[in-house]
Amino acid sequence: MLExxxxxxxxxxxxxxxxxxxxxxxxxxxxxxxxxxxxxxxxTWYWNRYPGARCDVHSLEYSYQFSVSLxxxxxxxxxxxxQAEILAYANHVAKQFDLRKDMQFSTRVKTMCxxxxxxxxxxxxxxxEEFRSRFCIMATGCLSKPNFPDIKGLEDFKACLLHTxxxxxxxxxxxxxxxxxxxxxxxxxxxxxxxxxxxxxxxxFQRTASFSIPACNGLLDKSYEQEIKSRYPExxxxxxxxxxxxxxxxxxxxxxxxxxDARNSVYEDRWQRGGLPFLASFNDLATNVEANNTxxxxxxxxxxxxxQDPDVAQRLCPHTVLGCKRLCVDTNYYQTYNRxxxxxxxxxxxxxxxxxxxxxKTSGAEYELDYLVLATGFDAMTGALLDIDIRGVDQLRxxxxxxxxxxxYLGLSINGFPNLFMITGPGSPSVLANxxxxxxxxxxxxxxxxxxxxxxxxxxxxxxxxxxxxWVDRVNRIAAKTxxxxxxxxxxxxxxxxxxxxxxMPYLGYPNYVDYCESVATNNYKGFGLS
Length: 531
Ligand code: N01
Known about the structure:
With 531 residues, the protein is of the alpha/beta class. It folds into two domains: 6-41 and 99-145 and 380-530, FAD/NAD(P)-binding domain, CATH 3.50.50; 154-221 and 253-374. 32% of the residues lie in helices and 17% in strands. The strands form five sheets. Strands 1, 2, 3, 4, 5, 6, 17 and 18 form an eight-stranded mixed sheet that branches. The protein has a five-stranded parallel sheet with strand order 7-16-8-9-12, covered by helices on one side. Helix 9 runs antiparallel to helix 10 and helix 14 runs parallel beside helix 16. The chain is globular, with a radius of gyration of 23 Å. Residues 55-56, 143, 149, 151, 164, 182-188, 190, 207-208, 326, 329, 347, 375-378, 431, 491, 496 line the site of 3-acetylpyridine adenine dinucleotide.
């Protein structure tokens, strides 16, 4: 297909998934184009520029591994890289692999329609442009559609309204300003300490307290970097065999079978080292409430030690299952509540009544604000896909198909929507794995599949109804063995979006998932209809 605007593959999104998909497909000789809504590449790291935005996965793991020279030549500054450095890395990759020439920015895909006569997708954009491609790869991201809360009067706010997920490119000067922030998830927890240092006052409106572990960030240890670089492929392989494809040092011992003192010293050690490996302190935290409670108690104690005002400390202690929401990782989050210019408003005792022209009115008080920051998260996993009007076979709309949850096969493909692939879609490990590792695995699988189809002169692939149902059952069965689907109202189950069907969306267990995908491919794409 080489007419203007006709490609073998159209890739939607220029984040890490879209970038690698473009590189991989082009290197196999497919014609491909990336279409991106933002004015530049970088996905998550293009949009989320709020103060403190940084990754919670170690820099030596949160990077591509497809190119040996790339992973040897790039050097990270810190253990956990900040947004600007990750964006610089994305730009470096784009330059090295000459990606921009096949990317189109400031272009939002609006509709996608499958033409069954010619096995081709017809794609239209907000500028009225039309593309045709045999295959589409949806690299639209799991956390890319910002969630704007339905709060009365929000549109009346006359001062400056910001959302962490679409932060302006210019620096915001909070000095001498009265700032309010709604939300206490990962984004807020990173932004709050830095905004508090700048602002005259910071008022935090909390609906649900989150668990946060200190990052213990710092400059990247050069000797560790050298050691890893001397055996990078082996290091990557070891990590890919772990549950979340992360080097999180899993402990195979049970929390409930460990004596209290010994257990607390394991937690203390993990707390001092910092970050997500805290969740791997014991092997039963995800499956046994009693075990989970021991970790919850430990963190509550830490909060009470750090936060001087016992009442504030009490309100900051979460009362949910640890890990059923994405664990937050911070630098000085709890310490920030000891500052004189910071106050915490608990929305469970005083709910927001409305946003006014000049601030927020709760049932208890009125707060005058110069800036209101929404750190209210995303319509996760399905939001960006459902924003596009996607119509498959017989004009079936994806919005209709997914009315009762995102049914799919392998988190990659959807019955009724041939030749369309999701990268890190619902039903895949995605947000519960190292995202870049998951992205490369998906893209490689899809690229191999398209290559197989080309070799066998096939023009259409779609998941069968049976394979899809079995996959949905499998994802649910695995999740049901853990405390996560019911332990709290998380975005993993869509609970943060009013009216969204409650389904646990990620697939738990990266290695097992990869094995399954490989067995599907080696069995001539078992579970797919090919023609
Ligand atoms: O969003 P969230 P986020 N009234 O959904 C509150 C990744 N990430 O942007 O819990 C009042 O976690 C909401 O309250 P509740 C990471 O995977 C990674 O912070 O729904 N409050 C919650 O407190 C993360 O999990 C990194 O009761 C309202 C907050 O807003 C994911 O992105 C950094 C409300 C939203 O928290 C999302 O994180 C940042 C309302 N109407 C993000 N609506 C790192 O790598 C919502 N809230 C470190």
